[in-house]
Structure formats: structure tokens, C-alpha cells
Design a protein that fits this description.
The complex is a heterodimer of chains A (216) and B (243).
Chain A lengths: L6 H37 L3 H15 L3 H14 L6 H27 L2 H9 L4 H31 L11 H12 L2 H32 L2
Chain B lengths: L3 E10 L2 E11 L4 E6 L5 H8 L7 E6 L2 E2 L7 H7 E4 L11 H11 L5 H14 L15 H13 L5 E5 L7 H16 L3 E5 L3 H7 L2 E6 L2 E7 H6 L4 H11 L1
Parallel strand pairs in B: 3-8, 3-9, 6-7, 7-8
Antiparallel strand pairs in B: 1-2, 1-4, 4-5, 9-10
The chains are: A mainly alpha (216), B alpha/beta (243).
């Protein structure tokens, strides 16, 4: 039975946005923590550790996010573990985000002039003290715009979680389309809602970038 | 006992030999000016002394510590040997005060109140106590370099290395930095400077080391080396810097 597209459907779509936002937030926290560790491993003065971090980043950046999602959702089921869609989605997106954030942050750390390492080493600071007091405070400042930029990608990419049955904005749109058979209108609304999340973030990123240029 | 003993050291950057069998010593209280053309190995020699550059041959001793031994605690060594760089290398995100107090509080675990007193004290020595709250980008090049000197002094080193510290400065700012160095020299600090300021070297240094092609070509008391150079290379170098 095909029914009309009503305001209630619109309300459901808006309501489903909360899972898009929640998944993005979880992935940002999980991916941020993991990504920070990987970024640090990427700059330690120990070559084998750096290679390990490079391997991790390459493996994740070189495989499709969709495949990573399937590994977590279907892959573990083979071994008899039933993974809830939201668990699989959170894990997959966290790991995906960690690889990209690690690479962004590694670049920010390496953008700090070598002379800052040298000057702090010459004062007797250890590697950890150099990072904490000299390098990271300067790197964080330049890391904010690209990190927010990646966040925009992350918001849009969470739509892939729809394929493993995680009911976020895109999945809700699929369900609504099935009931109303108005794909153009429904997906148009869904796209508009994504835009409502992403546009302010992009603006924020650009504002931060401008402020960065004048800030100390 | 010598403060520093450099024994036949070799330093290579890939196929390029930058230091080729260099030996010398530094006695406490000496002020040594290292001169020579660019690429002669002067800065590298300086940077080897506090372990910023690893060496491929020979030995460097600072008091009883073998600098080029992997087992040596370079952090401890660097608390005793300060270095000031050509490009100041202040920490741009920290105030002048924090630039100075960071290493004493973090590395030497000095209390914050004591560290602030120390910062004021060393800033007075470079004539910048009124800039304690400023940030590096609010200072002129000469002021930044004086803060960098104060930052090194705050670690109370036994010796200071100066790597062409006036080369990046506008001519009218060089004087204020040289005056700080002169005052330090008078206070008895052991100093080794790579410099192009021949007038300064003549007036302040007790010994001159002239480097050429990675070797110590000539060295000796300032008046003797500059007054009667023994090699044509030094004659030609002095001719080129004095005109």
C-alpha cells in the first residue's frame, strides 16, 4: 500500500538525524583517541614503530569504507559473534576515522619547524616533554581546520551504515521511500538535512582557518 | 682539567665530509671565536659539542662525559652546555617568561615562583625585564635573540655555544646582542662562538679557531692569529671579511 508523503515523514527523517550525529560523534571520539596514538607512533624516533603506523594507515586508507563495514558486521558473524549494527558501525567508523585523523595530525606535527625540536632538545627536554610543551600546542592550532574538514566527510560517510541496517538518516529515507514511493522528494529532503549539518561545519572550518592566519 | 676535549672527530653528511680530524680543547673561562668561510664546518663543530649532531669518528668529552657515547645522558649534558641559534628559535606560542621558565620547571623541576624570579634575573642580564609578558612576535629580532640568550642562561650552564647569533639581524640590531655577549664574557662564562663579526672577535675572544675545508687550519691567541696569520687561506679569508 503506497501512502502519501506527510509532515510526519519529514519529522521522522529529522528525528533519524540524531543517529547520524551520534554515529559521527562516536567515530570522532573513538577515531580521535586511536588516531592520536597512531599519529604519535608515526613521529617517534624509532623506525620500526613508524613503519607499523604507516602500515595501519595505508591498509585503512587503501580499502573501501564499505568493505570495512562489512568486515565488522558480517565478518565477525562467521566466527559466531553476532555484532549489533550500531556496534559494527561505531567500530568501523572509528577505525576508518583514526587512519585519516592520524595522517592529518601527523602532517600538522611535521609542519612545526625542525628548529623547534632542536631548540627544546638543546634545553634538555625529553621527546615526550618536547611533544607536550612545544610541538603539540603549536600543532593543535593548525590541526583544527583540516580536522573539522574531515568531520564533514565523516558526517556524509555515515550514510554507508544504512547498508548494514543501522537506522540513521539515509536508512530512514530508504524506509520512507519504500512506503511512499517518492524517492526524489525523500532523498532530496535527506540530502538537504545532511547539508544542514555539513554547511555550518564547513563554515566553521573556514572561519577557523581565517582566524588562524591572524592569530599568534 | 679541560671543560671540553675534542679528539680527532669526523663528521659526514652522506658522501660529504664536514669535519675531518678536528682536535682541540676548551678551558674553563675561555672565549673562543670560530671563524672561517661558510661550509668550512664551524657550525657543525659547535653543534657536535652538545650532541645535536652525531659524529662518525673520534671522541668528544665534556668534563667526564663522553658526548658521542650512546649511553651518555644527553639531557643532562645539555643542561650544562647552552646553545643559542642564528634564528633565535623561541617558542612562538609561549610568553617570554614561559620561554625562559619552561626548561627550569619541566627539566629541573624548579618551583614556579623560583622560576619566575630566575626569569626576571636573566632578563635583567640581557636588559629586557620589561618584556617578560610579551610574546616573541611582539619583539624585534635583536630582542628575540636576547631572550634566547636569557633562556639558555636560565639553565645555568657551564658553557655557552653561539651559532652565528647575529647573522640574521639587521645591522642596527647587532650591537645590542654583542653588548650582552661582552657582559657575559666579562662575567667569566666559558663561550664558544661562530661569528662573522671580526671586530667583536678581536676585542672579546681569547682564542681564535680558523676553520677551512673541515679542518682546524689555524688556532691560537687572538692577537697572534689575527695579527700575523700563518697560512695564505687565513690571509685571504681576513682580506675578504675586512673589506
Amino acid at each position: 500500500m503506497i501512502r502519501d508523503l506527510t509532515w510526519l515523514d519529514f519529522a521522522y527523517l529529522v528525528y533519524a538525524m540524531r543517529w547520524t550525529i551520534a554515529l559521527t560523534a562516536l567515530a570522532l571520539v573513538g577515531g580521535g583517541l586511536l588516531g592520536f596514538v597512531v599519529a604519535m607512533l608515526r613521529v617517534v624516533p624509532l623506525a620500526p614503530v613508524r613503519w607499523l603506523a604507516v602500515g595501519y594507515i595505508q591498509a585503512l586508507q587503501g580499502t573501501p569504507l564499505l568493505a570495512q563495514l562489512f568486515v565488522f558486521y558480517f565478518g565477525f558473524a562467521i566466527f559466531g559473534y553476532r555484532v549489533q549494527p550500531w556496534v559494527a558501525a561505531t567500530a568501523a567508523f572509528s577505525i576508518y576515522a583514526s587512519a585519516f585523523l592520524a595522517e592529518i595530525w601527523r602532517g600538522c606535527v611535521q609542519a612545526i619547524p625542525r628548529t623547534q625540536w632542536e631548540a627544546s632538545a638543546a634545553l634538555g627536554l625529553s621527546f615526550g616533554e618536547q611533544l607536550r610543551h612545544i610541538i603539540l600546542p603549536q600543532a593543535v592550532r593548525i590541526a583544527i581546520p583540516p580536522t573539522v574538514g574531515f568531520l564533514v566527510q565523516l558526517v556524509k560517510n555515515t550514510s554507508l551504515a544504512a547498508v548494514i541496517g543501522f537506522i540513521e538518516l539515509t536508512r530512514e529515507a530508504q524506509i520512507t521511500t519504500a512506503a511512499t514511493f517518492k524517492p526524489f522528494a525523500v532523498y532530496g529532503i535527506a540530502a538537504g538535512l545532511y547539508f544542514c549539518i555539513c554547511f555550518p561545519l564547513s563554515e566553521l572550518s573556514q572561519r577557523l582557518e581565517r582566524r588562524l592566519r591572524v592569530a599568534r | 682539567m679541560s671543560l671540553v676535549r675534542i679528539e680527532n672527530i669526523t663528521k659526514r653528511f652522506g658522501p660529504l665530509t664536514v669535519l675531518d680530524g678536528v682536535s682541540t680543547t676548551v678551558e674553563p673561562g675561555e672565549i673562543i671565536a670560530v671563524i672561517g668561510r661558510s661550509g668550512s664546518g664551524k657550525s657543525t663543530l659547535l653543534r657536535c659539542i652538545n650532541g645535536l649532531e652525531p659524529i662518525q669518528g673520534g671522541r668528544i668529552w665534556f668534563e667526564d662525559q663522553l658526548v658521542n657515547d650512546p649511553a651518555t645522558d644527553l639531557r643532562r649534558l645539555r643542561q650544562q652546555v647552552g646553545i643559542v641559534f642564528q634564528s633565535y628559535n623561541l617558542f612562538p606560542h609561549l610568553s617570554v617568561e614561559r620561554n625562559i621558565t619552561l626548561a627550569p620547571t619541566v627539566v629541573k623541576k624548579m618551583a614556579a615562583g623560583d622560576a619566575r624570579g630566575l626569569a626576571l634575573d636573566v632578563l635583567k642580564r640581557v636588559g629586557l625585564e620589561d618584556k617578560i609578558a610579551a610574546y616573541p612576535d611582539q619583539l624585534s629580532g635583536g630582542q628575540q635573540q636576547r631572550v634566547a640568550i636569557a633562556r639558555s642562561l636560565a639553565m645555568q650552564p657551564k658553557m655557552m655555544l653561539f651559532d652565528e647569533i647575529t647573522s640574521a639581524l639587521d645591522p642596527e640590531l647587532i650591537g645590542e646582542v654583542l653588548r650582552v655577549l661582552e657582559a657575559m664574557a666579562k662575567s667569566g662564562m666559558t663561550m664558544m662562538l661562530v661569528t662573522h663579526e671580526m671586530g667583536f672577535a678581536r676585542n672579546v675572544a681569547s682564542r681564535i679557531i680558523f676553520m677551512h675545508q673541515g679542518k682546524i687550519w689555524e688556532e691560537g691567541p687572538t692577537a697572534k692569529v689575527l695579527g700575523s696569520p700563518a697560512t695564505p687561506e687565513l690571509v685571504s679569508f681576513l682580506g675578504s671579511v675586512l673589506h
